[in-house]
Design a protein that fits this description.
Elements: H1 2-6, H2 10-23, H3 38-47, E1 58-62, H4 70-76, E2 81-86, H5 89-102, E3 106-110, H6 116-121, E4 125-131, H7 136-143, E5 147-157, H8 161-167, H9 169-174, E6 181-185, E7 194-200, H10 215-222
Parallel strand pairs: 1-2, 1-4, 2-3, 4-5
Antiparallel strand pairs: 5-7, 6-7
Helix pairs in contact: 2-4, 3-4
Pfam family, one: GidB
Binding site for S-adenosyl-L-methionine: 63, 68, 113-114, 131
Biased composition (Basic residues): 209-224
């Protein structure tokens, strides 16, 4: 199964799994119960969302943590330009160590998606990924501004994905997102396919007055 997903780069995925086994619990990256299901629940579960990513995409993995789904995506899809965004220093250190060990061409940025300097630095992405970061209401507000027009937010969710999408539809629209949809990745490969909420950025975020306003454009205008 791993070779189906990672192809000739499966050895890199195996080494990443070893690193998580060796350091994951001690460094607070994964829980003790996760060791026996690293492949199915974490590596493969993350990598299969690659089927939703267009070729040569610029991708930011928001709240990357242990490197999920970012590292598996970088292994499975070396054509991607990947940035791992993580606010915690110790996790940033871990991500940098993994990238060096696996010789991956991936950038690590310390910060949060909602921070102004981060939005300036990582603007106009094709795709933003997120795994267990926040409810859709907050995730859309934080992540959609990082995307170019028509860019995609891919949020890995659980069984309640459809309910969450319906509940937070108004907040997603206010953040500039279109009508989201729930997709399953890894069908026919994983025993339990990965559930992903897909939201396209269709407009700039709406201000408190109800107007649409692109924050990057607003900053440029103020600087004239």
């Amino acid at each position: 199964m791993a070779r189906v997903v990672f192809g000739e780069r499966v050895e890199l995925a195996e080494r990443f799994a070893e690193l998580l086994q060796e350091h994951g619990i001690r460094r607070g990256l994964i829980g003790p119960r996760e060791l026996d299901r690293l492949w199915e629940r974490h590596l493969l579960n993350s990598a299969v969302i690659a089927e939703l990513l267009p070729p040569q995409s610029r991708v930011v993995d928001v709240g990357s943590g242990a490197g999920l789904p970012g590292i598996p995506l970088a292994i499975a899809r070396p054509d991607l330009t990947l940035t791992l965004l993580e606010p915690m220093a110790r996790r940033v250190t871990w991500l940098q160590e993994v990238i060096t060990e696996l010789a991956l061409t991936v950038e690590v940025v310390r910060g949060r998606a909602e921070e102004g300097p981060v939005r300036e630095r990582l603007a106009d992405q094709d795709v933003v990924t997120a795994r267990a970061v926040a409810p859709m209401e907050r995730l859309a507000k934080w992540s959609l501004p990082l995307l170019r027009q028509d860019g995609l937010l891919l949020a890995m969710k659980g069984e309640s994905a459809a309910d969450e999408l319906e509940r937070d539809a108004a907040a997603i629209a206010a953040a500039g997102g279109g009508r989201g949809e729930v997709k399953s990745c890894g069908v026919g490969v994983l025993e339990v396919p990965t559930t992903v909420v897909v939201v396209e950025r269709v407009a700039a975020a709406r201000t408190s007055s109800g107007r649409r306003r692109d924050t990057r454009r607003a900053r440029k205008e103020r600087g004239r």
